[in-house]
Every structure is written in C-alpha cells, then in structure tokens.
Automatic annotation (TrEMBL):
<dbReference type="GO" id="GO:0005615">
    <property type="term" value="C:extracellular space"/>
</dbReference>
<comment type="similarity">
    <text>Belongs to the MIF family.</text>
</comment>
<dbReference type="InterPro" id="IPR014347">
    <property type="entry name" value="Tautomerase/MIF_sf"/>
</dbReference>
<dbReference type="GO" id="GO:0050178">
    <property type="term" value="F:phenylpyruvate tautomerase activity"/>
</dbReference>
<protein>
    <recommendedName>
        <fullName>Macrophage migration inhibitory factor homolog</fullName>
    </recommendedName>
</protein>
<dbReference type="InterPro" id="IPR001398">
    <property type="entry name" value="Macrophage_inhib_fac"/>
</dbReference>
<dbReference type="Pfam" id="PF01187">
    <property type="entry name" value="MIF"/>
</dbReference>
C-alpha cells in the first residue's frame, strides 16, 4: 500500500534501476513497518525539471501510505531515499524534495476495491 513515486531529470539509460527499486522497496517497507509485498516504487527518468533555476540533477518524490507516517518516520525516509538517489543517480540531497501523504484506506484502490 505504500507507494513512492520519484521523478528525476537524470537519464536512467545504462543505470541499474532494479537495484534502486529493490533498495527503495526494502527501505520504505522497513521504515513504515509494512510488508515489502505491498510496497510500490515508481521511478521516472529524463523528466524535464528545473530546481533553483538550473537543470542540474534533481528529483521530486511523493510517498503515499495508509498509516505508518509520522514526523520521525518521514525524516528517516527523506534521508534514506535522498541517500539512494545521491549514491545511484548522483542527485545531491539538497536537490531532492519528498512529499508525504498519509491517507485513509478508502482513498487507496487495490484489487478492484479499496483497503
């Protein structure tokens, strides 16, 4: 049920995206306390993006979850996802925003219904 959607202006061509997806899945599951089987990660590259007036490597993410998000968890998630993007895609931590949404199960569709 947690879904992390990340867009970046960095090209993903020639990048091992499977390692990014795997590491992000494990991180989100662990920090939010949800099974990996329910975590979705969406990674989009080569997205036209400007941050601070430049098109240097940057990223924007949104994480939606049914519960599990607290100020402390959000801080840990922000640090962990920023570290993954910096290590794997050379996006500086200072050029990454991550927005958190804690939603109700009735606002999250799955398996032809809602949670």
């Amino acid at each position: 049920m947690p879904c992390l959607n990340v867009s970046t202006n960095v090209s993903l061509e020639g990048i091992d995206t499977s390692s990014i997806l795997s590491e992000a899945t494990k991180t989100v599951a662990k920090l939010i306390g949800k099974p990996e089987a329910y975590v979705m990660i969406v990674l989009k590259g080569s997205v036209p993006m400007s941050f601070g007036g430049t098109q240097d490597p940057a990223a924007y993410g949104e994480l939606v979850s049914i519960g599990g998000l607290t100020p402390d968890v959000n801080k840990k998630l922000s640090a962990a996802i920023a570290a993954i993007l910096e290590t794997k895609l050379s996006v500086p931590k200072s050029r990454f925003f991550l927005k958190f949404y804690d939603t109700k199960g009735s606002n999250f569709g799955w398996n032809g219904g809602t949670f």
